[in-house]
Amino acid sequence: MPQTEPHARSTAKPNAADEPAPALILEGLTKVFQVGRSGRSVTAVNNVTLSIGRGEVLGLVGESGSGKSTIARLIAHLHEPTSGAMCLAGKPVPRQLRGRALTRFRKDVQMIFQDPFASLNPLHTIGYTLARPLEIHGFARKGNVQAQVSTLLDRVGLSPGASYAAKRPHELSGGQRQRVVIARALAARPELILADEPTSALDVSIRLDIMNLLLDLRDQEGLSMLFITHDLAGARYMSDRIAVMYAGYLVEIGPAERVIGQPQMPYTQLLKRAAPKPEGNLNAGGLEAPGEIPDLANLPPGCPFEPRCPHARAVCRAGLPRMYDVGAGHQARCILHDPELAAQPLLHPALQPHATL
Amino acid sequence: MKGLLTILRRSPRAAFGVGLLAALLLLALLAPLLTPYSPTSQAFGTWLKPGGEHLLGTTALGQDIWSQLVYGARLTLLIGFTAGLVATAIGTALGLSAAYFGGRTDEAINVLINVFLVLPGLPLLIIASAFLRGGGVWSIILVIALTGWAWGARVLRSQALALRNRDFVQAAIVSGERPARIIFAEMLPNLAGLIAAGFFSTALYAVLSEAALAFLGMGDVSQVTWGTMMYWAQARGALLQGAWWWVAAPGLCIALLGTAFALVNFGIDEVTNPRVIHEARATRVLRRNRAAPQAEPALEPPQPLLAIRHLSAGYVTPQGPVRAVRDVTLSVAPGEFLGLAGESGCGKSTLAFAATRLLDAPGVVFDGEARLAGQDLLALNPAELRRVRWKDYSLVFQASMNILNPVLRIREQVYDAMQAHGVQDRGRLEARARELFALVGIREDYLNAYPHQLSGGMKQRVVIAIALALEPKLVVMDEPTTALDVVVQRQILQEIDAVRKRLGISIVFITHDLSLLVEMSDRIAIMYAGEVVEEAPAHELYAQPKHPYTRRLMGAFPPLEGPRERREGIPGRPPSLAQDIPYCPFFERCPNHLPGTCDVFKPARVEVTSGHSVACFLHSPAVKEEAYAAD
Ligand SMILES: Nc1ncnc2c1ncn2[C@@H]1O[C@H](COP(=O)(O)OP(=O)(O)OP(=O)(O)O)[C@@H](O)[C@H]1O
Ligand SMILES: Nc1ncnc2c1ncn2[C@@H]1O[C@H](COP(=O)(O)OP(=O)(O)O)[C@@H](O)[C@H]1O
Ligand code: SF4
Ligand code: SF4
Ligand SMILES: [Mg+2]
Ligand SMILES: [Mg+2]
């Protein structure tokens, strides 16, 4: 539902029985990739359950390779899930979609890619790129395609739109390209936007512009959004709620302010410490959990973060910790929230714990 | 068409090949003008020597050899081009379908390709043509095309597979495009270079196969081609009769045609295959030749490693020049870490590329100089530049992980830069490659991997390792970590910093992440609309930013703490760089601007406190003379 007040943020609190169904529900979504001929399998997304409310922005953070993009691609039907279910606006979406049904689904779910340098075909003009979704989804009547294209460009802040339509991607700066990419996603008038790191290739001032643009669009058109990023400050700025991924697992989820303000899972804490801080000096602190990015084909048996975790206990190796409720709408996958298990001795005393929970 | 021109301009070898090919084509087309005789007429004396009426003498049957040569060119080229076209069409269709549809389709096509690849070519040709005997030229073309398509199909399939995973193809799929459109409108045009290369290779294969078949008497020997000429010369014992030219002329023509195809192919490869070290680039420098640079009054010590003086650079577009770098003066001391920040489009990359002569056309340097350890990079010719680049300085590009060639192993790409600078010994190459990988924190076994098997962070480390391969004194890094997550970014930066301290190299680090820069740099320069508007030691810039733009830039990132509220970026846009800007470029967006001053005069950059210079009338009334307003 459109917000009238520009700064208002919708809350994800289900407050009434007639609340419309969430824009998106994922139930136990899993994706196993077969790598190479050997058939080695890699679980990029492991049993992820979450939902995005109508008009809500869900931030998804985690290091590269943690499965964030794969989730977006699964939702967008660029990959087929290995298992799990998905509902869009209350209606179940079949795992396999073809032909008409797929085109209709594509109209409702649009994606914004990370790298504006790579997500526009270098050989097409901006006008062509934007006209295609209009034509595909039947918004284009003869003659008014041009006009719609320039309206779209104006809406994303590229004005006068007509002058941009004739350009090719290489003539635009990164920020301008990303606006074009956003315009392409808006062209189909979708309900859900999957924004896969839409700002990480952009500079700071543009980043803020693009985030504001997305927030405005959310407010004006009631778009729901999955906002993927590795920039915690950006996630906090954009999102109503934030989900944290590690090695394919959802490890923490909750209201944006709480997840960033008081992270309840050691990995989220590491992310927060690694964020650039102008006051700090690069070499003064160092990182307490440098470690390798986990090898998804060879995950530890228990908590995926255990080899790097300064707080790990023996029980962390025994099995995957469950999600613990750690506050209102806030859950974290860490045994430290079980007082009994947390009393066990440390597994890696060498990884000096820096911050305690 | 434009692609062809680029190739010709960038690759002299390709230009030579195309010239050769054109000459041979002309020979075929103008045959009737070049000789008065029919190639099959036997009206002349036999075994005549070259000279006089018969430029190349006559055959044992009394045919004019020169006539046979020029008319033979027609059929030979027809077979070459047609068989090349048919084979390329088959290969392209199958390769693209395999890549697009994947799964079963891909497997089936892949099996087919491999079967055709292992079948021995010549025996297959001989058997097939035996069946098609008497079918004339077309059956030969068909046979050659059917035996020659698989190689191109394989290359195309692997490239198309990589292309299919590129974001713009995925984006087209998400927007709802149908397969046909994705294949023909999105993927095919981007494979044009490869397809052209495949065409020339199979055309060459076709010409050679035809010659071989004809020579063995398997083709239609009543037709005149260069192959059948050689067959008859052999059959009639031309060499025994001392008539070596009967054999040599068609032989030489085939060799020339082969050379032409190979050269064109080489050129296409050179231009379309990205190589990390950019051998072929050398930005055009338009600056007026001044009197030989005065022996500069000994620069104030410490002498800078890189000294950029009054550099203006940009792009020549059909709408007129875009001045993306405007009279920039900047220096980097040995061992220093200089940060360069500014919003998108303000000319950071252009500055980095122009100063290192890597700016691609239509980019040009308009004026100024860039001295690396005293040597003016802008005065070097391409050969000298090649010698200096990568050895004295190197670069890591924005999104440079995409620069790794997807079909080559990492090892070859790491070797590449070193080999280009004369390190050939395998043992040394390998040892150095391992050393470099240890330096940037990647396991050595990844040397064997292909780029797609590495994550973005690892690819970026590979590119940084390559940049360090020859121990350059200066490394320019254009947003090397922007696409990486914070943890990996921090690890890489810590490694870069350690390497810098260990080897004493200087780094110019371009990013828009000011908070990151403040943490890393010794000194920071802020760019706006092509100019450096403020320069100061990092901590001082953070503590006391002076230029209003710097201050806004500092406020433009959302905080990790504190209230969560809407922040504005910097309202407004920078001025167009296509125009002259004879006033403060920031005045339209500046909250402090002084009417009647800032929009009329241009502030000069002045050192206001030691090491801290800024171009703003709030801090100094000095007015800058426009250096280039006159042209
Ligand atoms: N090939 C080109 N033809 C015409 N103009 C160009 C071309 N490439 C870049 N420009 C223009 O030159 C200016 C500077 O571009 P440049 O790539 O140097 O910016 P940048 O500071 O590196 O930005 P970013 O942070 O987005 O990488 C921009 O206004 C851009 O539009
Ligand atoms: N098509 C694919 N085939 C095999 N493995 C893949 C594929 N796509 C992603 N992966 C693997 O899945 C993991 C998660 O990737 P991704 O979702 O792209 O991570 P993120 O977006 O969080 O950086 C990575 O280890 C990656 O290598
Ligand atoms: S479950 Fe154990 S290993 Fe995992 S994050 Fe918590 S303390 Fe660390
Ligand atoms: S010179 Fe004037 S307009 Fe420019 S930054 Fe300074 S105060 Fe603002
Ligand atoms: Mg990703
Ligand atoms: Mg740039």
TrEMBL record, chain B:
Chain ranges passing through the membrane: 77-101, 108-131, 137-156, 188-207, 213-232, 244-268
Domain ABC transmembrane type-1: 73-265
Keyword Transport: yes
Ranges of residues in domain ABC transporter: 308-554
Keywords: ATP-binding, Membrane, Nucleotide-binding, Transmembrane, Transmembrane helix, Transport
Keyword ATP-binding included in the entry's annotation: yes
GO CC annotation terms, alphabetical: plasma membrane
Membrane topology of the entry: Multi-pass membrane protein
Cellular localisation: Cell membrane; Membrane
Pfam families: ABC_tran, BPD_transp_1, oligo_HPY, OppC_N
PANTHER family: MALTOSE ABC TRANSPORTER, ATP-BINDING PROTEIN, OLIGOPEPTIDE/DIPEPTIDE ABC TRANSPORTER, ATPASE SUBUNIT
Family that this chain belongs to: Belongs to the binding-protein-dependent transport system permease family.
Protein name per the record: Oligopeptide/dipeptide ABC transporter ATPase
Protein's organism: Deinococcus phoenicis
Taxonomic classification: Bacteria, Thermotogati, Deinococcota, Deinococci, Deinococcales
